[in-house]
Amino acid sequence: MTQSPERPSTAELLAFALELADAADAVTMRHYRGGGEAWRKHDGSLVTLADTETESMLRARIAARFPADRILGEEEGLTLPAMPMDPSSSEASPSQWVLDPVDGTHNFARGIPVWATLIACERDGRVEVGVVSAPAMGMRWWAARGLGAHRREALTGVEERIHVSDRANLEDAQVLYGSYTLTLGSWGGRVEELLRGSWRQRGFGDFWQHCLVAEGAAEVALEGEIKPWDIAAVQVIVEEAGGRLTDIEGSSRLDAGHSITTNSALHELVLRTLSGDA
What average pLDDT does range 56-76 have in this prediction? Predict the structure, then answer.
């Protein structure tokens, strides 16, 4: 297929991202618990054949549908379009797809079902569409700007719009985090104060903690070390559900190397606590 001369709508981008997620599920589930080899990358993290095969497949489909778009992925990095954008096109700037073929690779490799494929599309400097597909959990979350955030449970087939909680007191809040050591070592060691002041603390980590905030099951999710492909898809889901995902300065960005997700009601308090200004 060739790229349409018209700028695709947000709804069209979302529909395509959901198609990509279906295709990714077929690849990842074929490898899951299949005894495939996992090896270590230069940074010490694991990678499996499911990671590399899924990302390659997604890249091929995106390039075929939108050849002028950039693609950033965990396994292959940034690739520029094979076909530069036509200057006369109505596209204000090239879109960029951000891919994490298997978020939670360590879980995947150990047979733990908490992993997902993350697919996002950035346009005009912000994430427009995000899909989180967790087939082993039987769950999928997605969102698009102006179209709300949603989830679907495969077992029941129930599809519903999701919203963050309205809990505004830390002592009533459930706080989630990724790596315990990385989280405690971040933000000047002030995370412990936040955890101790909250109602409940759990180390769910990865995509799931952000989605739990988006659907109102938790209020705060902390990532002490993060890459853009880890949070691009969940950022728009959280924001369309009424929450916030920012850096310590309160900026909505993907390249800060850390992230703070909340239900909005607690965001300023969390930022002040982690900054030492509470």
Answer: 95
Q: How far is CA 93 from CA 76, 234, 248, 264, in A?
A: 22, 22, 28, 30
- pLDDT tens column, 169-219: 999 999 999 988 889 899 999 999 999 999 999 999 899 999 999 999 999
Beta-sheet strands, E only, within 90-236: 96-103, 116-123, 126-134, 139-144, 148-153, 159-161, 174-177, 200-202, 220-223
* Tokens matching residue 44: 């010490």
How many residues in total does the chain contain?
278
Helix (H) or strand (E) holding 183: helix 180-184
Q: Which domains does the chain have, with CATH numbers?
A: 10-161 (3.30.540.10), 170-275 (3.40.190.80)
Residues 261, 244 contacting (CB under 8 angstroms): yes
